[in-house]
Amino acid sequence: MAKEDAKKTEEGSGSKNKMMIIIAVSVVLLIGIGVGAYLFFSGDQDLTPEQEQALMERRAKEVGPMVHIDGFIVNIMDEGEVRYLKAAITLEAETAQVAAELSQRMPQIQDAILLLIGNKTFTELSDLQGRLQLRAELLNRINSLLLSGKVKRIYFTDFVVQ
After folding, report:
1. 134 vs 156: CA distance, rounded Å
2. What is the CATH number of the domain that holds 139?
């Protein structure tokens, strides 16, 4: 009996040691991830607040190459009435290379725009919040098609809902 008790005690302390090692490794790993994330996200901390503000203003003022999408008309959903949207869009690309890719992928981009807008309702498109939401959705959809960069901004240069 004494041998069995001694054996159980050894097994119990062995599993406790393994558990302590797993916990210690987990804590070290979490600390490492935290430090890595801090260093990754705090890359511009050596700038003074004035330098950081100037950098943000300069980036906001920089205008990328523009790609215009000619006016188009899309039927939109509405109960009981035929409604449509007449719009024209200009895309601001990050670089000239992105602008070239936009031009090359224009049929895909136009298809994505028409499909997205065609599923909107008159109510969604008739107020500012709905238009801002549409702009964000278009930006995400178009950027998902691109390989060489991103569209920075989308401008509605014509927007009529009837």
Report:
1. 10
2. 3.30.479.30
Number of domains in the chain: 2
* pLDDT one-digit tens code per residue, 35-47: 776 666 665 556 6
Tell me if the pTM is above 0.85.
no
Q: Give the whole-angstrom CA distance, residue 21 versus residue 16.
A: 9
HSE on the CB side for 147, CA within 13 Å? 3
3-state DSSP helix/strand/coil % of the chain, to nearest 5: 60, 20, 20
Nearest to 113 by CA among 129, 93, 94, 89: 89
Could you report the per-residue pLDDT of 105-146, keeping only the tens digit for each?
999 999 999 999 988 889 888 889 989 999 999 999 999 999
Amino acid at 48: T
Instruction: Identify the top-confidence range among 13-17, 51-55, 56-60.
Output: 13-17
Cα–chain-centroid distance for residue 73? 28
